[in-house]
Specification:
Elements lengths: L1 E4 L6 H9 L3 E4 L1 H20 L23 H12 L3 E4 L2 H15 L8 H13 L2 E2 L2 E3 L8 H11 L4 E4 L2 E4 H7 L11 H6 L3 H31 L9 H5 L4 H14 L17 H4 L1 H23 L7 E5 L2 E5 L7 H29 L22 H17 L21 H33 L6 H11 L11 H16 L4
Parallel strand pairs: 1-2
Antiparallel strand pairs: 3-5, 4-6, 6-7, 8-9
Length: about 500
């Protein structure tokens, strides 16, 4: 199976499949024709000595400086070297790989003036899994992700570090080993590689994949908590949710009822109590709102994944050629979406922490022992797991501050408003990892709580999950280093994200 790129129809689902099945990529014939046609425009510009930004002029504030024709190619290499000043820890290999796929997909739209040699070099790096080492920090999100994408470009020309066969090595060394020449950048190509939003978008795609999966995972975990607390199922009745007119809420309620079907631990209203606390009763409303956010973010990311966000853009249609300097590199649409994603993720953690608190608090958990301790007093049980969850939730609140509300002028005020979208993507992923651990803590505690209530009374579907996760985290018979259990469950949850249909 191969992922075919055409610059027009790439989806997040395809990226998930590409990552989980370690697919190769290929390029459609139509896309190759568009690339060839747009490159011909660049060659005409050079031949005619036209004044076009980034091709025959300098960059940023130097846009009025004309470049000697003999130095057009040198200009592009200088651009990459000077802009490759990213700092900090590198993006994950998955993010860097997706970054290359997205940048290639953008070039295939045929508005960037790239050569077929550049396109083929990106394809080669992707298929051979030669993955550039790309520092996370240093992008303002306009003019696109200049610093991160410059590190990507460095690898293509044999000057940067890459991950290859589980090692970090010099790009030129790998190319020599594989008998491949470094790319020789032509006029316009350095700019075509780095003017865009692929760093924030690639991290955003990974964020979306893992955040959406957490939304699904937390439902069965919440179903365990619901049963441990003898929760009321009436609140999930379809009639309640259909009158709210929110499809995602309706869907969550239906899935909760599906998880709880045939449970002997659930109750009906007025049987044990009239109403549950909000953290149980309002799961469809709270989780459903997060799924609304996820659906919004998916749409915005897929728009950007298939967008021409280079500058200048080349249009050669109906016997008219236009080369227009614009601002499609500005990451504002992605930045706002990724800041929004942070809120949806944060709420999953907030409500999960409140549920797990109810499981261990003797004033709230019914007949369960305080902190689910096997020997209250002598052993603390789950007491400090709630502390850890509370700490992660509080940290998320700080990270949730929108990066997109900030802007710092750059390039001598030529670039006087920027998106900070890459910061939004990076902070968002930190929040996802925090949220995953909060949900893992609820899982560890809920498994123990339902064990005390009676595993044989669980609904059949949650009983299967109980048996699956008991292979990862054993029963709590005495105090132990619970951080190992939390990390084991969190990693198991993460691994699942790329295999969900």
């Amino acid at each position: 199976m191969t992922l075919i790129l055409d610059g027009e129809a790439l989806t997040i689902k395809e990226i998930k499949t590409f990552l989980s099945q370690d697919l190769q990529i290929d390029i459609s014939e139509d896309a190759i024709e568009r690339v060839t046609k747009s490159r011909q425009v660049v060659e005409r510009i050079i031949q005619n000595k036209e004044t076009i930004y980034g091709i025959t002029t300098g960059f940023g504030l130097f846009s009025d400086v004309l470049i000697d024709p003999g130095q057009y190619n040198e200009l592009q290499v200088n651009l990459i070297r000077s802009h490759a000043c990213g700092i900090g820890k590198p993006f994950s290999e998955e993010v860097a790989l997706v970054m290359m796929v997205l940048r290639l997909n953008t070039l295939l739209k045929g508005h960037s003036g790239a050569t077929l040699e550049l396109v083929e070099q990106l394809k080669f790096f992707i298929n051979e899994r030669i993955i550039p080492v790309i520092p996370q920090q240093g992008s303002l999100g306009a003019s696109g992700d200049l610093a991160p994408l410059s590190h990507l470009a460095l690898a293509l020309i044999g000057e940067g570090d890459v991950y290859y066969n589980n090692e970090q090595v010099d790009s030129r060394y790998v190319l020599n080993e594989l008998g491949r020449e470094p790319l020789k950048l032509q006029a316009k190509e350095g700019l075509a590689l780095i003017n865009g939003t692929q760093a924030m978008t690639a991290q955003g795609v990974i964020n979306f994949i893992e955040a959406e999966d957490l939304g699904y995972q937390v439902e069965w975990i919440a179903s365990l908590t619901h049963q441990a607390l003898n929760g009321i199922t009436d609140a999930y009745n379809h009639n309640v949710h259909k009158v709210r007119n929110i499809k995602e809420q309706v869907d969550v309620a239906a899935r909760m009822l599906n998880w709880l079907e045939d449970s002997q631990l659930t109750t009906r209203q007025a049987e044990l109590r009239v109403q549950d606390a909000y953290s149980l009763r309002c799961i469809p409303q709270i989780h459903g709102a997060s799924f609304q956010v996820f659906n919004y973010v998916r749409e915005k990311l897929e728009f950007e994944m298939n967008a021409a966000n280079d500058n200048p853009l080349i249009f050669d249609e109906d016997d008219e050629t236009l080369v227009i300097s614009g601002g499609n590199f500005h990451g504002q649409p992605v930045a706002l979406a990724l800041d929004h994603l942070k809120l949806g993720v944060s709420e999953l953690a907030n409500v999960a922490e409140r549920r797990l608190e109810r499981l261990i608090n003797p004033q709230l958990n019914g007949d369960l022992p305080a902190f689910l301790s096997p020997e209250p007093g002598l052993q603390s049980g789950a007491m400090i797991m709630q502390y850890a969850a509370a700490s992660l939730v509080s940290e998320n609140k700080t990270l949730a501050h929108p990066a997109s509300v900030d802007s710092i002028p750059s390039s001598a005020n030529q670039e006087d408003h920027v998106s900070m979208g890459t910061i939004a993507s990076r902070h968002g992923y930190q929040m996802i990892e925090n949220t995953r651990r909060v949900i893992a803590i609820e899982c560890v505690i809920a498994l123990q709580a339902v064990e005390l209530k009676g595993v044989d009374k669980l609904s059949p579907k949650t009983r299967e999950k109980y048996e699956e996760y008991r292979k990862i985290v054993p029963s709590i018979n005495q105090d132990r280093q619970f951080h190992k259990d939390i990390e084991a469950v969190a990693q198991y949850l993460k691994d699942d994200a790329y295999h969900r249909a």
